[in-house]
């Protein structure tokens, strides 16, 4: 906070100040929100079509498996979770499932923190 010359204001809420500080720090430093690791299990007939709709919301696809069902393990931005969940439920009419494997997947340098 010293680098961006930010001083704490007691009249503002802590959440509001934290959001302001994070925004300013993003400009100076490489700060990125931690990704969530998810597993989708989708019916094969709807899976290919749904995968194309999900692609813009997915950061990294780690694995795909086409057996009796389409299974995808991927990383997403946490802000997209609700949109992805709604899309899967609506498009598969409750036949698809979404599982959270990891809430925060963070990599820093050569070390991986989980």
Automatic annotation (TrEMBL):
Domain (Ribosome maturation protein SDO1/SBDS central) ranges: 1-34
Family: Belongs to the SDO1/SBDS family.
Species the sequence originates in: Myotis myotis (Greater mouse-eared bat)
Pfam families (UniProt xref): SBDS_C, SBDS_domain_II
Biological process according to GO: ribosome biogenesis
UniProt name for this protein: SBDS ribosome maturation factor
Record-annotated Ribosome maturation protein SDO1/SBDS C-terminal domain positions: 36-103
InterPro entries: Sdo1/SBDS-like (IPR039100), SDO1/SBDS_C (IPR046928), SDO1/SBDS_central (IPR018978), Sdo1/SBDS_central_sf (IPR037188)
Regions crossing the membrane: none
Record's signal peptide: none
Alphabetized PANTHER family for the sequence: RIBOSOME MATURATION PROTEIN SBDS
Gene3D superfamilies: 3.30.70.240, SBDS protein C-terminal domain, subdomain 1
